[in-house]
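Narrative progress, year one. The postdoctoral researcher (J.K.) led the effort to move from monomer predictions toward full complexes, under supervision of the PI. The following entry was the first complex the group processed end to end, covering 360 residues in total.
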Amino acid sequence: METTEPEANVTRIMLAVNESSIKGYPHASISSRGAFEWTIQKIVRSNTSGFKLLFLHVQAPHEDEFEDMDSIYAFPEDFKTMKHRDQTRGLHLLEYFVTRCHEIGVACEAWVKEGDPKEVICRQAKRMRPDLLVVGNRGLGPFQRVIAGTVSEFCVKHAECPVVSIKRSPGETPRDPVDD
Amino acid sequence: METTEPEANVTRIMLAVNESSIKGYPHASISSRGAFEWTIQKIVRSNTSGFKLLFLHVQAPHEDEFEDMDSIYAFPEDFKTMKHRDQTRGLHLLEYFVTRCHEIGVACEAWVKEGDPKEVICRQAKRMRPDLLVVGNRGLGPFQRVIAGTVSEFCVKHAECPVVSIKRSPGETPRDPVDD
């Protein structure tokens, strides 16, 4: 990775990522992956030394025995030392994105936090002060949104930093569009 | 300007810009300039050949005698040939942004359209299919928003492309925050 710019001067983009509700255990949701790919292809482009990506995954409380909430993961090796991989659902997710960033050559950090996703994302955005927060969005219609709720709408309204919501492409919509 | 990447592959960012309501005639609004500076500093950065900026200014109907709605402006020289500069309020605005882009070395195009700004912006975004739409935002509180309305909220909700709304920094708020 090039380090031609001091870190204080990079553009820091926070990505809120979550797990898929359809493909089971260790996969990132379709909309999370779409938001990540959009960020790399449309914003970072070839300027990998100009950006740092901050991945945040928020887990609902007591979802599993995960005890390692305050660790920061920035290198693929950081995940290899883990003993109880099967207990740490969120980390599989972060490992995917951190590994992709290292392949591409863009700096990153990743966290897991516990709580209500929409509130924790806004709180972490306030704490970290990213230049941009990118959230995926299933692109549901108004009726489906009432049922499913949307984290992205809440963040667009309440986060203190600029927010962009990336809609899932129609071609990637699963059979039940509330799934992701 | 470097042209190392073919244009089909650049990231196209549409910026909706408007005139200041306080400083009079030819100036861009504080929030328009803030949205532009954010785009340059945080997104384009040093990668000037990777981006193209599309400036759209929407004028209310019959605001003046402007007859040149369908022209496209991409170079500072495009503005020099105009005869009736005083009749073309929106063009001063576009000239400012086009000149800034040429100083920086980033490709751009600029248009004026007539109509209701929020609807025209969404319609043009649908037509142009930018990768990102950037709109300035006065950062008004809920009470002021009811009175003043906000174009950015409408675009975030209705535009078909990703949208980011850039709040005016508190230090730049004029005496009457509804002004811009």
